[in-house]
Amino acid sequence: MAKPRHNLINISAFSILLSFGLLSAWSNAQPQNPPAFSYLLHCSGCHIEDGSGDPPEVPDLRQNLDKLLTSDEGRGYMLRVPGVTDSPITTQEMADLMNWMISKFYPELEEFEPYSAAEVQAGRDNRLANPVKFRKEYFPQLSE
Question: What is the pTM of this model?
Answer without folding.
Answer: 0.76
